[in-house]
Amino acid sequence: MTRGSCGKPTCHCRKGEGHEAWSLTFMHQGEKHVLRIPMPWVEQARRGVAQGKEFKEAVAEIFASNALLFGIQARQRRR
Of 8, 21, 37, 61, which has the most beta carbons under 10 Å away? Predict the structure, then answer.
């Protein structure tokens, strides 16, 4: 969550902390993207981010397991 002013010269945000704004920041094809998230979508976006992190961790475990198996196979072939 960030806070910012809306640009209206008479709005209270010009004198205070500003309006709350939620965003989703991600990388795509090597470029950083920032999407504003409407308040009603924030919880859904949080769940999606958490699920994405779980998936990424699971894939990393599979890659590590595959590398270990490859190492075991390589040692067995040398014998």
Answer: 37
Domain positions in the chain are 1-37, 38-79
Is residue 19 within 8 Å of residue 13, measured between CB atoms?
Answer: yes
Residues 6+ apart with CB under 8 A from 19: 3, 4, 5, 6, 13
Average pLDDT over the chain reads 92
Reduce the DSSP state of residue 17 to 3 states and report it. Answer: coil
pLDDT, tens only, 26-52: 999 999 999 999 999 999 999 999 999
Query: Per the structure block, which two tokens stand in for 49?
Result: 């981010």
Predicted local confidence at residue 40, as pLDDT: 94
Alpha helices in the chain (DSSP H): 42-78
